[in-house]
Design brief:
By secondary structure, the protein is an alpha+beta fold. The chain is built from 5 helices and 6 strands; from the N terminus they run H-H-H-E-E-H-E-E-E-H-E.
Length: about 180
């Protein structure tokens, strides 16, 4: 029976976990690079300090963290973009991205949304359903929670997973009530 060895199974599992780990590492290092643009010293930059702590918690090697810090000072190629979208049952989505190619990222996000039956929204048309990030609350938070059916919830969870699998997408926030915590 060809292909049924234990090593063969381990190899495929390792490939999958290494791919997920690599994607996570690249997202965390992009966040460090963007945060370090303002102030490269984590003692004076709480956003950078949080990004470094998150990376260390995910076991990102210290060399990679230092490389991201020096890379951010040398180039301005990465930029943050915030996209707004409407998902199933008109649920609002805020999609935060860090990218080196704005047009590619927007195109990829639009395609993922289109495949899921969702659509990108104009700037400001979905943000009204959320409280903007502030010093006290650094992330988008839903202002008005929306109830959806269990089928729609399953579709929305699948959509968010597809979006978060994109290496440029950092975080997706939705205004759906009883959103599962992850």
């Amino acid at each position: 029976m060809s292909g049924h060895s234990k090593w063969h199974q381990i190899k495929h599992k390792k490939e999958a976990t290494d791919k997920k780990r690599g994607t996570l590492f690249s997202k965390l290092l992009k966040a460090i690079a963007v945060a370090a643009r303002e102030q490269a010293n984590p003692a004076f930059n709480p956003r950078l300090r949080t990004a470094i702590e998150t990376a260390r918690a995910a076991n990102v090697p210290q060399d990679n963290i230092e490389r991201a810090l020096t890379k951010s000072a040398a180039t301005d190629s990465l930029e943050e973009i915030t996209l707004e979208a409407y998902g199933p049952e008109k649920s609002a989505l805020i999609i935060e991205c860090i990218t080196d190619n704005r047009n590619r990222t927007i195109g990829e996000v639009k395609q993922i949304l289109k495949d899921a039956g969702a659509r990108i929204a104009d700037q400001g048309s979905a943000a009204w359903a959320f409280n903007s990030p502030s010093a006290e609350q650094p992330r988008w938070t839903p202002r008005f929670a929306q109830d959806v059916s269990s089928e729609t919830m399953a579709n929305l969870i699948r959509l968010v997973e597809f979006l978060e699998d994109n290496p440029d997408v950092e975080r997706v926030t939705t205004n759906v009530a009883s959103w599962p915590t992850r």
